[in-house]
Write a structure and sequence with these properties.
single chain, alpha/beta, Aspartate Aminotransferase, domain 2, Aspartate Aminotransferase, domain 1, 15 helices, 12% strand
């Protein structure tokens, strides 16, 4: 028997059919916290059943012995799957309510693997400028210049007709990030899904900023989920990872036709750490949401703040949509101070408690300046179109006492 006789080797490329009914994970009927604690280990995956432990084990091996010449093991090699990563994938799929999941070395890598799998030269992807910086770089230069895959940025992402106008026969994917990083633009998932499906195109939703604890895109019509595990899912800046969640046929297509050769899955130890962190995800996201709301109210009233982006404030342009689509705001927000880049620099350099670093979703409050770091590849006109002012500061509100975060903001704004 050759490897190609096995059904999991080089599967047929996935083709989206909007008439196909989504297949939820078998545990989707359980409560969110129950899934976060038990999926994949309550009834362990076959290759982990030999371990009778309370905590799932780390299986660090990158290769797996054949039982005999013609019986191929699965997992077979660490580029495609390891037992610990497989358990994490089961849990992520269950939390999102999807059929299957596949991890990657980062959220950016997960996006790359997905697009590289489903798009060919001459195809196009429809998205907006409300996407994370590394995703924009892939869309604006890497795929168009190196793979001849065009990315079309909708002119008015709040209008479903604007999305429809960019879709044609060569569109392979519609990609939405909501709420967006860093300006917290909220896209109507159900409306865009309806537009995409009418054109027989799948909808990808990046659910990184609020996670499945606060938003369920698949229930609103999305077909695929993109995740940066590095952010709130892990929650403390100790792991680097990403994932996609969706139909099993798509997941296995990406796994065996791209990841197998790229080899960028999450290592066993990072996968194991993430399993531990997911156990407290909903509690953490509730705390992030409650604290960020208090911080947002403080900033809203502060005379040194010109503008604030937070989905729980009634002044937010998509406030009503956010209230329908999400069960909480999460911990990400941003605000604009006067003075452009020098003004933002003075405030950031004055923080004593808040850390200035490149990430978000950490247990400690962290800030960053998008115009000069994550979104520096955008043109000034593109940044202006999505509200990335030179004085914009992205704030990822952590789990500290709210009063201490507010006090540090107060003194930094005064010093700035």
């Amino acid at each position: 028997m050759s490897p190609t006789d096995k059904p999991f080797f080089m599967p047929t490329p996935w083709h989206f059919n909007p008439a196909d009914k989504p297949v939820p994970h078998p545990d989707a009927g359980q409560g969110f916290d129950t899934r976060a604690l038990h999926t994949g280990w309550q009834h362990p995956l076959e290759d982990l059943q030999k371990f009778k432990t309370f905590v799932p084990p780390i299986v660090p091996s990158m290769t797996y012995p054949y039982e005999r010449f013609d019986k191929i093991p699965y997992p077979v090699y660490g580029r495609t799957k390891t037992p610990t990563a497989a358990l994490l994938e089961e849990r992520l799929a269950a939390l999102e309510g999807g059929e299957a999941a596949l991890t990657a070395g980062s959220g950016s890598q997960a996006l790359f693997n997905l697009i590289f799998t489903i798009a060919r030269p001459g195809d196009n992807i429809v998205t907006s400028l409300n996407i994370f910086g590394e995703g924009y770089k892939q869309a604006a230069t890497i795929f168009p210049e190196r793979c001849h895959v065009e990315f079309r940025f909708v002119k008015n992402p709040a209008d479903p007709k604007s999305w429809d106008a960019e879709i044609d026969a060569q569109t392979r994917l519609v990609w939405v990030e909501t709420p967006s990083n860093p300006t917290l633009f909220v896209t109507d998932i159900a409306a865009v899904a309806q537009v995409a499906h009418a054109r027989s195109v799948p909808l990808l939703v990046d659910n990184t900023t609020v996670t499945a604890a606060l938003q369920r895109p698949l229930e609103l019509g999305a077909d695929i989920i993109l995740l940066s595990i590095t952010k709130f899912l892990a929650g403390n800046a100790t792991v680097l990872g990403g994932a996609i969640v969706g139909p099993k046929a798509l997941i296995e297509d990406v796994r065996w036709n791209t990841t197998e050769f790229v080899g960028a899955i999450m290592p066993p130890f990072d996968s194991w750490l993430t399993l531990q962190y997911l156990e407290t995800l909903s509690m953490r996201m509730a705390r992030h949401s409650a604290t960020s709301r208090q911080v947002a109210e403080f900033l809203r009233r502060h005379p040194a703040v010109r503008h604030i982006n937070h989905t729980d404030l009634p002044a937010h342009p998509q406030y009503a949509l956010a209230q329908r689509q999400m069960s909480g705001a999460g911990g990400l927000m941003s605000f604009v101070v006067p003075g452009g880049i020098p003004g933002a620099a003075r405030v950031i350099d004055s923080f004593r408690l808040v850390t200035h670093a490149v990430t978000f979703g950490t247990s400690r409050t962290i800030c960053m300046h998008p115009p000069t770091i994550t979104h520096e590849h955008m043109t000034p006109a593109e940044r202006a179109a999505v509200g990335i002012d030179d004085g914009l500061i992205r704030l990822s509100v952590g789990l500290e006492d709210p009063a201490d975060i507010i006090a540090d903001l107060e003194q930094a704004l005064h010093a700035g």
